[in-house]
């Protein structure tokens, strides 16, 4: 028997023992999320299933818009009625851990995470080697394109290089039809920065290296130049790329309606495309990020979400919260060997991150749309999780948008973005 099955056997025994502990009094655990109503309903159903075998514990679900998630956690964590469990973007973890707003995972939960999740994903749920939560979804980026528009423009295959990408964007542009070749996103930090970072990674660069920003590197300057070139040529139209707080808006509508030929987006938006396009969703295909002149191959940016427990909750609440998360993310809580969290994520078309969930959903992940994302996962580059990461992201967003709307040249944006990033990260580390 290999070490991994032995560890799994030990871990299963340990988690079962942890779950069997009785509570001296009734405990209510509040679960804060940004998920939409249909997903909240699935989470509530899972909580009800857990409650049947865990008398004395009640899990109440609360949802707020994504834009309010971090501020709600910061302002209410540890207070009466505040969240016990919160689903967070992993970029926020370093600061939440520094400010002692999140509870370090107990040993059994920590071992569960480091044993049953890929190393990179488990690392993103950790600070200084300490695990702070359960990873759930993992998201990567790919080039999405409309096959029908490609055919009309005489383009036979997805672009593999930046030169092919720019040429395709020009061919797909039809001003008379209000059609842009490549859709950029604005008014949403992740939607602006992650596609840019994916192109940068595919040009051999990175946003941050060893804690130091690299936004004025030759690789990054070339990425800003590419954006400026697309805008100036009319192949990208900034006003067509607006997002709202719920990650919908013109950027989505224009792709759904066939007004955008290509866009770089994450796997989670599959459900939105299906809902908006119906049978026309069959026209959508995915491909790796085009490779820049300095790149060694296509690379996507990856990021993940995780569930954490408030450090300010009572001991009883924390114990109940970690027990629920162990069950919720465990391979026996869902169907066919998947976790209940995996079932929930798959209902949204999101890639689960637990190794056994990926195996359980292997057939579902072979769909033409999702297969393209699974293929790029191994070469993905994790978005840097550093102190000051959110402010860094929002600052870079501002400079990318300035290029989109003609307020800064590519050279100006690269220089200003680097200066701002240096100041932000230095201040955050003090």
Automatic annotation (TrEMBL):
Position of the signal peptide: 1-24
Pfam families: SBP_bac_1
GO CC list: periplasmic space
Domain of life: Bacteria
Main location: periplasm
InterPro entries recorded: Bact_solute-bd_prot1, SBP
Annotated localization: Periplasm
Keywords associated with the record: Periplasm, Signal
Family, similarity comment: Belongs to the bacterial solute-binding protein 1 family.
PANTHER family per record: ARABINOSE-BINDING PROTEIN-RELATED, DIACETYLCHITOBIOSE BINDING PROTEIN DASA
Name this protein carries in UniProt: Sugar ABC transporter substrate-binding protein
Organism: Kaistia nematophila
């Amino acid at each position: 028997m290999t070490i991994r099955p032995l560890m799994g056997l030990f871990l299963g025994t340990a988690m079962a023992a942890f779950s069997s502990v009785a509570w001296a009094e009734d405990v209510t655990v509040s679960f804060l999320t940004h998920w939409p109503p249909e997903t909240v309903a699935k989470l509530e159903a899972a909580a009800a299933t857990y409650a049947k075998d865990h008398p004395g514990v009640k899990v109440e679900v609360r949802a707020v818009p994504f834009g309010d998630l971090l501020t709600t956690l910061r302002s209410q964590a540890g207070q009466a009625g505040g969240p016990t469990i919160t689903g967070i973007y992993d970029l926020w973890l370093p600061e939440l851990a520094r400010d002692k707003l999140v509870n370090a995972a107990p040993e059994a939960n920590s071992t569960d995470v480091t044993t049953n999740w890929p190393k990179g994903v488990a690392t993103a749920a950790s600070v200084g080697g300490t695990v702070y939560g359960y990873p759930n979804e993992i998201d990567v980026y790919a080039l999405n394109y409309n096959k029908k528009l490609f055919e009309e423009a005489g383009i036979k295959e997805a672009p593999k290089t930046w030169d092919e990408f720019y040429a395709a964007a020009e061919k797909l542009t039809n001003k008379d039809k209000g059609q842009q070749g490549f859709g950029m996103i604005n008014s949403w930090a992740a939607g602006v920065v992650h596609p840019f970072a994916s192109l940068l990674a595919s040009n051999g660069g990175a946003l941050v290296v060893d804690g130091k920003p690299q936004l004025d590197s030759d690789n990054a300057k070339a990425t800003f130049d590419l954006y400026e070139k697309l805008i100036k040529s009319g192949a990208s139209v900034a006003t067509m790329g607006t997002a709202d707080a719920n990650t919908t808006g013109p950027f989505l509508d224009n792709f759904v309606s066939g007004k955008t030929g290509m866009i770089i987006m994450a796997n989670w938006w599959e459900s939105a495309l299906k809902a908006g396009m119906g049978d026309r969703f069959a026209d959508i295909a995915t491909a790796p990020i085009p490779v820049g002149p300095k790149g060694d191959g296509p690379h996507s940016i990856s990021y993940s979400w995780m569930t954490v427990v408030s450090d300010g909750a009572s001991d009883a609440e924390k114990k109940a919260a970690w027990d629920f998360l162990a069950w919720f993310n465990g391979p026996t809580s869902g169907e066919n060997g998947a976790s209940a969290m995996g079932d929930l994520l798959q209902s949204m078309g999101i890639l689960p991150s637990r190794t056994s969930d990926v195996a359980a959903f292997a057939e579902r992940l072979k769909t033409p749309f999702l297969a393209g994302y699974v293929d790029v996962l191994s070469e993905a580059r994790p978005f840097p999780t550093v102190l000051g990461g959110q402010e860094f992201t929002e600052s870079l967003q501002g400079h990318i948008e300035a290029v989109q709307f003609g307020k800064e040249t590519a050279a100006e944006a690269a220089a200003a973005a680097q200066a701002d990033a240096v100041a932000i990260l230095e201040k955050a580390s003090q």
